[in-house]
Amino acid sequence: RPWFWLKLPNGFGQVRRTMASAELRRTQSSGMLKKSGELALAGSASQGALTKHSPPPKVPKYLSVHALTRRRKLAASTGNLHGYMAEDYHQINWPLPKMFGKEKYGYSLIDITDPRHLKESASMSKKLVRLQYDQQIIDLEWRKTYKSLLDAEHRRDTLPGNAQPKTKDMHKKEVDDYIKYLGELQEQKDMYEKSITEVYTKCDDIKLALKKESDLEDLRVFMETRTKDSLSADNAFFRTKFNIHASGGRGSGM
Predict the structure, then answer these.
(1) pTM
(2) Strands 83-84 and 109-110
(3) Is 233 helix (H, G, I), strand (E, B) or coil?
(4) Which pLDDT value is given to residue 34?
(5) How far is 103 from 123, CA to CA, in rounded Å?
(6) What span, in angstroms and rounded, lies between the C-alpha atoms of 79 and 86?
(7) What contacts 87, CB < 8 A, 6 or more positions away?
(8) Which residues partner with 84 through β-bridges?
(9) What is the DSSP letter of 97?
(10) Alpha-carbon distance 82 to 146, whole Å?
């Protein structure tokens, strides 16, 4: 046997496992009580030790709200409640001319600045950039196709009464083709709108949770201040140890 091998007494392994199990239970139970008002989300493990007062994590500059030189939003009536105009629309004509971006497509930068959700917001902003980039192309193609459909219907409806059946069939087929293609484009438009709505719904959930956290913290501060104001500084209340359990135990009332 190697020189560093030591013969351990019988039962040492069992004692070691027992100690490890007890330590594991203590580790699992610790940290369950958090400061009042802090948001405890299911995904807190993936967020690390970040709090709302932590410095913001690093994200790409084009996805960072803090890197904006101007903060500009559309009116709430447009349905865009969470997006700032991306910095690229102030710097360069990307991804399409500014006339398109100022219409609605450039507002892709999620406005959530809480450090705990900043990376998730950057990920959603990146998704919105891609979705709205493609949506511009689909919308433009939809408008062109719809205009072509109107022209085709006008040509079909203004045919002379003595037009050949072959000509009528040709114009009818042209209208039917445009209608079919327009329906396919509409399905894609709806698909992009649904994906964008899912992003905005996620933003709503995050903001609702943050508002609930803020309201609970305000309530805690209000109640703490009211208690301090109603009692003198030397009151026995401030020297009483806080106990979350009932004095007679859980089964005392039975």
Answers:
(1) 0.64
(2) antiparallel
(3) coil
(4) 41
(5) 23
(6) 17
(7) 61, 62, 67, 68, 69, 109
(8) 109
(9) -
(10) 31
Residue with tokens 């005392």: 252
Report the interhelical angle of 165-230 vs 118-157 (nearest 10°). Answer: 150
Task: Look at residues 225, 228, 28, 38 and name the one whose alpha carbon lies nearest to residue 114.
Answer: 38
Going from the first residue of the chain to its last (254 residues), give the mean pLDDT of each consecutive group of 10, the final group possibly shorter. Answer: 45 47 42 41 49 80 79 74 75 52 73 88 90 88 95 92 90 95 95 92 92 92 87 78 66 48
Q: How many CB atoms lie within 10 A of CB 37?
A: 16
For the chain, where are the alpha helices, taking DSSP H only? Answer: 12-29, 88-91, 98-100, 118-157, 165-230
CB crowding 61-92: b at 16 or more within 10 Å, else e: ebbbbeebeeeeebeeeeebebbbbbbbbeee
Contact (CB, 8 A) for 37 and 217: yes
As a whole number of angstroms, the distance between CA 73 and CA 125 comes to: 14
| Token code pair at residue 19 | 């100690």
Look at residue 92 and give its three-state secondary structure: coil
Number of neighbouring beta carbons within 10 Å of residue 98:
14
Q: Which amino acid makes up residue 219?
A: L
